[in-house]
Amino acid sequence: MTTFDLSPLYRTAIGFDRMADMLSNAARVDSNGYPPYNIESLGEDRYRITMAVAGFSPDEIEIVTERNTLTVSGGKSESEEQGEGEFLYRGIATRSFERRFQLADHVEVDGANLENGLLHIELKRELPEQMKPRKIEIGSGKSRLIEGERKQKVKAA
């Protein structure tokens, strides 16, 4: 596997730290694949992440957003993992996990719920008012401000 040293980017690219972080994170391969997840588009500005977290209760899962990173982590205490009897075969994984998702600008978590062993995280994208497209009217060749000034000059004379 080829590795790249991105430290020169940090020294010379001011304001591009986030891009260098994304390149650095993309180089890491998430090999364990636990827990499995789906990402769905529910419309133009709505998304859902669904994670299979069988065996975890809502108080054992933590969802945190910081900057443009969504982190979902879960863990069980040692006493809860023991159970009443001895396992002959253990196919349901209850190990601790942490999944990170990079969110696009202006994407926020709208809510989360745990149902039938599936964690659903609802996301929405809301553009600030100044970034939304606006329609600009095209005038008739004369600016309204100039016409208003001309009327004031006529009245003054």
Walk me through the topology.
Layout lengths: L6 H6 L4 H11 L9 E5 L4 E7 L8 E6 L2 E6 L3 H5 L14 E6 L4 E9 L2 E8 L18 H13 L1
Antiparallel strand pairs: 1-2, 2-7, 3-4, 4-5, 6-7
Question: What do you see in this structure?
Answer:
The protein has 157 residues and is an alpha+beta fold. It folds into two domains: 1-31, no CATH class; 34-127, Immunoglobulin-like. Helices cover 22% and strands 30% of the residues. The protein has helices at residues 7-12, 17-27, 78-82, 144-156, and strands at residues 37-41, 46-52, 61-66, 69-74, 97-102, 107-115, 118-125. The protein has a four-stranded antiparallel beta sheet, with no helix packed on it. It has a three-stranded antiparallel beta sheet with strand order 3-4-5, with no helix packed on it. A hairpin with a 4-residue loop joins strand 1 (37-41) and strand 2. The mean pLDDT is 76.
